[in-house]
């Protein structure tokens, strides 16, 4: 398929930033960058069109408080730069200013974002719809979107072959973005887990929004404190994933115990067909000479995390060491493509990527 070249055209980037509900200051910086340093009339017209078109599309639910704020700041930024302000911007702002803000503060915190992963080839772009909260603490932090899941999703989408046809198990999945990226690259089975019930409910909703069925991607309530060995080992994952899960000192011993059980699973031996190398569920009457015994690799964990508190992170490393886990920082080695070039608020340098393995004797 031919690649269209406008994947990162100014209007495409600004639209992606608008739909991802980038903070207004980041959106204006992007608009300025796009306009060669100022909010030219052309850039203002692009913004106006994006706002008008988006509000007219029925499937898109935009938060009018955000739109009102954005239009106001665009006008102020253009005026203070002595740019001519495009007439329609005032009109659009006046229209939206008449709409009353949502008075229910709980609902007001809930937003719909569209996170667009932009590939060099337009046809490969992935648009993920997410229902999430503006309150970072809602649902024990699991209803908000965190930067590490953006980076981990970029890693997954940048190295699709690594995860294709693999069983993946995520801990502390929150809004479910990583699971959606795994489904996109063809992981065979995806198990998303979280210890907060409202986050699980929201995650399920997000999977529906992105048309993912529960056979391929399942959600499971799994608090680290009480997760039993059988709950963790039943699915024999190839990969274990986690984004922004190392932050609460109280939870660390439980998290390390969970990682250890998942990663410690003994290497599996499975019978595969000598011809096709497909795994075979062994029946008594199978001819053993047609089969080969193959060793499966032990699971590997990829954890993306922002180190907000060095003491907490060092404590995680210490507990991991005591539990025979080897933790390697592979941020540079597995550097992903920049698939979110419009997201100026995303500080990808703040996220570390760790590979965790169980040290076999
Ligand atoms: C900072 S959020 C990150 C969410 C998501 N991975 C992301 O990056 O957007 C941490 C997640 O870990 C979950 N979590 C925290 N403590 C937990 C525990 N003890 N057991 C299971 N999940 C827990 C929270 O519910 C939340 O979803």
Q: Could you please describe the fold and organization of this structure?
A:
The chain is 39% helix and 19% strand. The chain starts with 9 loop residues before the first helix and ends with a strand. It has 13 helices and eleven strands. The protein folds into two domains: 7-101; 134-358, Rossmann fold (3-Layer(aba) Sandwich). Helix 4 runs antiparallel to helix 5 (87-98), helix 7 (147-158) packs parallel to helix 9 (177-184) and helix 12 runs parallel beside helix 13 (310-322). With 361 residues, the chain is an alpha/beta fold. A seven-stranded mixed β-sheet has the order 5-4-3-6-9-11-10, sandwiched between helices. Bound molecules: S-adenosylmethionine. S-adenosylmethionine binds at residues 140-142, 145-146, 148-149, 172-175, 194-196, 199, 223-225, 243-245, 248, 251, 254.
What is the topology?
Blueprint: H1 10-19, H2 24-34, H3 41-56, H4 64-80, H5 87-98, H6 105-109, E1 110-117, E2 126-133, H7 147-158, H8 160-163, E3 167-171, H9 177-184, E4 189-194, H10 197-209, E5 217-221, H11 229-233, E6 239-243, H12 252-264, E7 269-273, E8 291-295, E9 300-306, H13 310-322, E10 325-329, E11 351-358
Parallel strand pairs: 3-4, 3-6, 4-5, 6-9
Antiparallel strand pairs: 1-2, 7-8, 9-11, 10-11
Helix pairs in contact: 1-2, 1-3, 2-4, 4-5, 7-9, 12-13
